[in-house]
Amino acid sequence: MSVESKKTQNSLMNMITQLHDVDSYQELNWEGSFEDYLHVVQKNPKVADTAFKRLYDMILSYGFEEYTEHKKKIVHYKFFEDPIDAGKDALYGLDLPLMKLVNVFRSAAMRYGTEKRILLLHGPVGGAKSTIVRLLKKGLESYSRTPDGALYTYSWVKGSLDDKHNIFGSALEIPCPMHEDPLHLIPVDIRERVIGEINKTLPEENKIIVEGDLCPSCRYIYRELSKQYGGDWTKLISHIETRRIILSEKDRIGIGTFQPKDEKNQDSTELTGDINYRKIAEYGSDSDPRAFNFDGEFNVANRGIIEFIEVLKLDVAFLYDLLGASQEHKVKPKKFAQTDIDEVIIGHTNEAEYNKLLSNEYMEALRDRTVKIDVPYITKLAEEVKVYEKDYGPSRVSGKHIAPHTIEMAAMWAILTRMEEPKKANLTLMQKLKLYDGKSLPGFTEDNVKELRKEAKREGLEGISPRYIQDKISNALVSDVGGGCVNPFMVLNELESGLKHHSLIKNEEQKKRYRELLSLVKEEYEDTVKNEVQRAISADEDAISRLCANYIDNLKAYTQKEKVKNPYTGQNEEPDERLMRSIEEKIDISESRKDDFRREIMNYIGALSLEGKKFDYKTNERLHKALELKLFEDQKDSIKLTSLVSSVVDKDTQEKIDVVKSRLVKNYNYCETCATDVLNFVASIFARGDIKEKRSQQN
Predict the structure, then answer these.
(1) Cα 683 from chain centroid?
(2) What share of the chain is helix, strand, coil (3-state, %, to 5)?
(3) In the prediction, which pLDDT does 568 show?
């Protein structure tokens, strides 16, 4: 090995040594006697929290924000942004269902009854149900490493015991197989008084509650040691060593996952454990708890959470186990008495399976013990866009540029497929999408949006899955078409061609509707890029400021019934009505409403003046847009944008086009390729418009 290689190796070793936190390791691997653990409980009662309380506190530990949407107060829990993995599993647009889920956790943490229920996440495929549970499991793992989320269990240690009754067999140490709280070792007849002593100084919400008995294995050892020591509990407890545990799905500590297989291979022992045949020879009986592996998913998930993937596909025998586990917090291992558990039971299923449950009269008991949380598709455009930007942002996609609005248009189509047609005759589906996205439309209030949400019972439970959109964006990214740039039409074409073979589309009528919605999205894209190019052409701020000053001078004179001084002739003239109307018409201010609009602008200027502020056209969105469109109209002919579609462009026009292109690159995130493409596209739109105008004039 060269000297340089040795230096690199040594520096890496030093780096690892410095980064490795020995103190943290020792803290997470704390061990002590039962008495030591009682001191831990008195100092930090949270270590004895129930599974639901620990889960609820974990979510709250990341903080939350409250906001109002359509007159409804909504709580956004920051935990669901996935701060643990830097947003890898972040959830968007699901604040309402997540708020309902956390409310269930809160109720269960306070022992109001929902701790005896199975939580069922219900919704369409690709609706983030699995991601929610994955986040909860990941959150619990991380939280168990913090002081607030710490939890402890124990092992039986043989020590110097004269084991004449073969209690330990060949083992020197027997860990509790279900990672129980050491407080379960306090005799049941005095437990209430002991726990009451700890609870004396604690507020009501933090009081410790210890329920349930030891698992069969620990109960057997406890009983045998009691016999050997003549009931001397102090000597018995000297064989207990308590230790801190870290919840881990990989290590099967406190987190379990069960995925149903085909009906012939389903075995209930996967949930409740099975006999260890190797140990029968040692202990002499298959009903000896030491010869049983308490390693079913219910057992290993004790004190944490168990996830049931596609829970309603479980065999009936499993569902019976679920009933007892949820309502009684007990499971029944083969050949043993019911065993106490403390865990959050959460499953997820799609609509087809849930409808089967509703139609099965034999499943009434399960339905009665289920709390259903609907997890629909996102119906808010800005939130749906975030889903795809997470996967296809600049940091993830290398070597290709995704043109502006590409992801937005794909997301828009996905949301349109999930929405129900509005019942109001004066409202289009696209307008409804914009209202949901927080945009304002004339004549529609927050109450109207609230009413629209209420009347659409099935909205978000049907439509196109985000997975389909992701697949088609991926196809466009690896395609050779378009060179180094992916534009909206490439993705929209992928989305349309994929409909032919989409396995979840039920009939031709649905395919036809989805294609029509794609046409709607293309129209919306045309309007968007037209406006963008218009703004790029009219982005001369000095020219807009001059036009605005001219408009305001005429506006003041008009509203105050005065005349305007012509800067060239020096003569006083009537306000330029033609100029004012040419600007106002750009934002559809009718002749009958012009006075209202003009008074509104003057009142706005007056209010700013009272506050000592100067009027800036940029602070008034409607006027800003009108000025841009007017300037564009004035400059359009000088730039001759429509000449782009011809093969000959003069030098002066080309220079002006290059300026517009540079503005698109600088201000709107276009690259050279897609800026040229979008200018050509908009030029063709204007060319079509010019042809139509000429034809109508000829006719």
Answers:
(1) 40
(2) 55, 10, 35
(3) 66
| Cβ atoms within 10 Å, residue 482 | 18
Q: Which residues contact 277 (CB under 8 A, 6 or more apart)?
A: 286
State the SS3 of 176-202: CCCCCCHHHHCCHHHHHHHHHHHHCCC
Please state the separation of Cα 156 from the chain's center in Å: 43
The band of 8, judged by pLDDT with boundaries at 50, 70 and 90, is low
Structure tokens at 547: 């036009």
Backbone angles phi, psi at 451, to 5 degrees: -65, -40
334: which DSSP letter? Answer: T
Q: State the distance between the two ends of the chain, measured CA to CA, in whole angstroms.
A: 89
Q: Name the H helices within 560-610.
A: 577-584, 594-610
Contact of 366 with 345, CB cutoff 8 Å:
no
Lowest mean pLDDT among 60-74, 367-381, 550-564: 550-564
Q: What is the DSSP string of 343-410?
A: -EEEEEE-HHHHHHHHH-GGGHHHHHTEEEEE-PPP--HHHHHHHHHHHHSTTT--S-EEPTTHHHHH
Report the chain's mean pLDDT, rounded to a whole number.
87
- Taking alpha carbons only, the member of 191, 243, 179 closest to residue 34 is 243
Task: Give the H or E element holding residue 308.
Answer: strand 305-309
* pLDDT reading at 582 higher than 60: yes
Among the listed residues 243, 220, 238, the one whose alpha carbon sits nearest the alpha carbon of residue 160:
238
Which spans in 200-315 are helix H?
Answer: 216-228, 233-237, 269-272, 277-283, 297-300
* Percent of the chain topping pLDDT 70: 92
- Output the pLDDT for position 362: 67
Q: What are phi and psi of 339, to 5 degrees?
A: -115, 135
Residue among 216, 219, 222 at smallest CA distance from 237: 222
- Closest C-alpha among 306, 287, 48, 276 to residue 180: 48
The two three-digit tokens of residue 380, written as one number: 């808010």
| Spatial CB neighbours of 512, under 8 Å, sequence gap ≥ 6 | none
Q: Residue range 211-231: average pLDDT?
A: 93
Question: With b meaning 16 or more CB within 10 Å and e meaning fewer, what string describes 10-48?
Answer: eeeeeeeeeeeeeeeeeeeeeebebeebbebbeeebbbb
Residue 448, judged by CB atoms within 10 A of its CB (0-12, 13-18, 19+), counts as: middle
Write down the H helix ranges in 538-670: 541-559, 577-584, 594-610, 621-639, 651-668
Evaluated on CA atoms 266, 272, 277, 280, the torsion sign reads: negative
Is pLDDT larger for residue 294 or for residue 441? 294
Write down the number of H helices and E strands in the chain: 28, 19
Residue 282 one-letter amino acid: E
Residues 6+ apart with CB under 8 A from 551: 579, 580, 583, 627
